[in-house]
Recover the amino acids of this structure.
């Protein structure tokens, strides 16, 4: 018996040793994926929209930009950012015309240009990812466009369809998507802006709305091919034109965004079936594109997965870049076919600590740097230059930095009666209240404490590196700062208290009611380590004796509150879509109101002078005249203070040595196709860094064995004594 027990313990130990040799005990991935060409990364907020006509958030574009292909893209390596063809054969040609339709020269004054025509030709031989929407029966009918209840009984996700097919990309697909911008059921965030430019788009939206109202059934498919839009034209199978009102130089940038990616009508009809909609099988949940990757798993509470599109066209890693790119190893793969990575696994991680630990263990290939881990990861060397610590360097981890073309801000809902004001008197009171709060919230302190110095305080919406941004004395916000000894200094809290009293809230008390002033701050759901940021914000308001109540929710619910105007004060940010001041200044343009027109003006700010200047500025080329207009617009914004201007962040990212071809930027979002993973090196490092310590297990087993031996010996003696005992007759 004792020998049997010892044998069992030995077998258990051997089992653990064998299991360990096969795969690390703490490996969060399946053994089948070990050593494969897979990129592992994280996401924190679940996407709400994956339909390119509606999607406009950074947590969504990390997926959509890999799937959809607009005609243009940014050169991956060149700086400043340079637009190049994606699916287009070459850069679009632009022609200018007067009211009579006469062709004008490119240097014609803007006032004389009635409209512009962009002509885009796409490459032949580009095919969509495999998809059930394209499947036809033997007689040519679409197999899955009229699904019966019986057929739907076994369909729960898109992968449940047994057959897929594809077809070639054509010019009509790009026009179909432009028409979708005006679809009354889709509420595109850029519709209002594009309706000011694309000829006939506003009238087209009115027409479609009327058509839908006349439909007998709510779920009737609206085939946009049957409704003509004046501002678009198919020239031939691979060429189309877009007609723009006047001259709008920034339109070329929009052609590099998913809003102008192609959508095949077959997918629109397929996803319009009510039976699929009830199962959440929609274009907003299952994107379809010609890009390098396709979404094969959509479980936003746990994992999102992109896999290589087997039909992806021939595209190659760029052969030229900036002078330093060759030295940094970024041209090693010049001319190699893209993409390099077969699969991208996004795991949802709400907390930063497990995310950080898994990165250090080698189970995530890239990591941001939270304030808690900054000192562990980064050190400052000569002249303030940042580099990784020695411990990180020993692991082969490198630091990549970039100036983000972004701004983080706190906005006031201008429709709110307290912070926005209802009548003239109320608006004046609210303006002084906003100015007082702007003075009290110390973003220099915030950047120092929570961003480890990775950012600069914002004085306007425009970020550094964008035309219109001012540095030095001429760039300071004089409402909040004084210029002292060649640098901006925040005005004293006494100035803020004086403004608060003038607003009708002396010492934070409403002089009309005698009650304390209470304000509400809407934020997205926070992890435990972010609570200190919210406590800090409360303390900033407490400087003015204002009580700040935090209302936290998940990101999708937060977006709904902003869209409906139910937030009073809110925290948000903006990453530039294209390198032009318009892309920041339109965030406060009246017709872009979130509540009124579903635009991107989340503060619902409206100022007639600002709006008029915006309309003048947006069509101008960069130069002295445009800068003067921008300066006046910024002056108006600072006075009205619809935002706490927040700060412009600096991006820091940590990358393992096996993660290659990385050159960060915030404008080019379709970057995953350029990345490369050395899966063999990763597997080796994972084994080294996660080698289990076995001696405690062996020791425990040994203690158990040693402890059981005396008991088993005594038991055997007792059994033996019972077996030989004699009984009297």
């Amino acid at each position: 018996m004792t020998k049997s027990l010892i044998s069992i313990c030995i077998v258990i130990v051997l089992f653990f040793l064998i299991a360990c040799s096969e795969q690390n005990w703490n490996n969060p991935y399946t053994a089948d994926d070990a050593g494969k060409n897979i990129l592992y990364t994280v996401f924190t907020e679940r996407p709400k929209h994956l339909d390119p006509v509606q999607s406009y958030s950074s947590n969504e574009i990390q997926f959509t930009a890999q799937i959809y292909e607009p005609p243009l893209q940014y050169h991956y390596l060149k700086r400043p950012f340079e637009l190049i063809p994606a699916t287009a054969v070459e850069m679009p040609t632009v022609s200018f015309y007067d009211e009579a339709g006469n062709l004008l020269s490119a240097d014609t004054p803007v006032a004389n240009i009635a409209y512009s025509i962009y002509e885009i030709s796409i490459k032949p031989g580009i095919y969509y990812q495999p998809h059930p929407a394209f499947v036809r029966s033997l007689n040519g009918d679409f197999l899955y466009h009229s699904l019966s209840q019986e057929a739907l009984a076994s369909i729960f996700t898109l992968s449940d369809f047994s057959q897929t097919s594809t077809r070639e990309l054509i010019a009509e697909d790009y026009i179909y998507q432009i028409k979708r911008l005006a679809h009354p059921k889709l509420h595109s965030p850029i519709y209002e802006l594009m309706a000011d430019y694309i000829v006939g788009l506003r009238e087209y939206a009115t027409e479609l709305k009327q058509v839908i109202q006349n439909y007998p059934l709510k779920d009737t498919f609206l085939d946009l091919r049957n409704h003509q839009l004046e501002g678009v034209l198919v020239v031939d199978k691979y060429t189309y034109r877009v007609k723009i009102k006047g001259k709008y130089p920034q339109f070329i940038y929009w052609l590099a965004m998913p809003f102008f990616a192609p959508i095949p009508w077959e997918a629109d009809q397929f996803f319009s079936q009510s039976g699929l909609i009830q199962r959440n099988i929609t274009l907003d949940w299952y994107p379809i594109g010609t890009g390098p990757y396709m979404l094969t798993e959509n479980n936003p509470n746990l994992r999102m997965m992109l896999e290589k599109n087997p039909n992806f066209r021939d595209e190659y890693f760029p052969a030229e870049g900036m002078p330093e790119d060759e030295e940094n190893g970024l041209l090693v793969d010049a001319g190699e076919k893209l993409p390099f990575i077969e699969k991208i696994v996004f795991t949802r991680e709400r907390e930063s600590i497990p995310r950080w630990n898994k990165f250090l263990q080698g189970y995530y290939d890239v990591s941001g740097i939270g304030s808690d881990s900054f000192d562990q990861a980064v050190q400052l060397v000569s002249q303030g230059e940042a580099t990784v610590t020695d411990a990180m360097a020993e692991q082969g981890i490198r630091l990549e930095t970039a100036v983000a073309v972004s701004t983080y801000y706190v906005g006031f809902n201008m429709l709110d009666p307290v912070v926005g004001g209802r009548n003239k008197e109320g608006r004046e009171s609210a303006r002084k209240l906003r100015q007082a709060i702007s003075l009290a919230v110390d973003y220099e302190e915030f950047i120092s404490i929570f961003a480890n110095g990775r950012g600069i305080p914002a004085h306007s919406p425009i970020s550094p590196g964008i035309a219109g941004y001012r540095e030095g004395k001429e760039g300071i916000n004089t409402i909040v700062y004084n210029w002292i000894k060649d640098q901006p200094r925040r005005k004293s809290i006494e100035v803020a208290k004086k403004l608060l009293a003038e607003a009708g809230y002396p010492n934070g008390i409403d002089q009309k009611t005698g009650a304390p002033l209470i304000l509400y701050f809407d934020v997205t759901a926070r992890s435990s380590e972010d609570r200190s940021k919210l406590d800090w914000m409360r303390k900033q308001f407490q400087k003015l004796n204002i009580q700040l109540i935090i209302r936290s929710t998940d990101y999708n619910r937060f977006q709904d509150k902003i869209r409906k105007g139910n937030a009073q004060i809110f925290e948000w940010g903006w990453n530039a879509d294209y390198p032009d001041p318009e892309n920041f200044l339109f965030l406060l343009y009246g017709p872009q109101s979130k509540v009124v027109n579903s635009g991107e003006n989340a503060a619902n700010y409206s100022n007639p002078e600002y709006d008029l200047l915006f309309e003048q500025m947006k069509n101008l080329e960069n130069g002295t005249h445009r800068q003067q207009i921008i300066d006046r617009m910024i002056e108006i914004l600072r006075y009205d203070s619809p935002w706490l201007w927040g700060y412009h962040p600096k991006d820091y990212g940590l990358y393992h040595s096996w993660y290659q071809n990385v050159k960060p930027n915030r404008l080019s979002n379709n970057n995953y196709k350029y990345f490369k993973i050395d899966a063999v090196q990763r597997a080796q490092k994972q084994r080294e860094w996660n080698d289990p310590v076995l001696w405690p297990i062996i020791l425990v087993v040994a203690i158990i064995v040693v402890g059981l031996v005396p008991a088993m010996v005594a038991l055997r003696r007792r059994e033996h004594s019972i077996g030989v005992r004699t009984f009297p007759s």
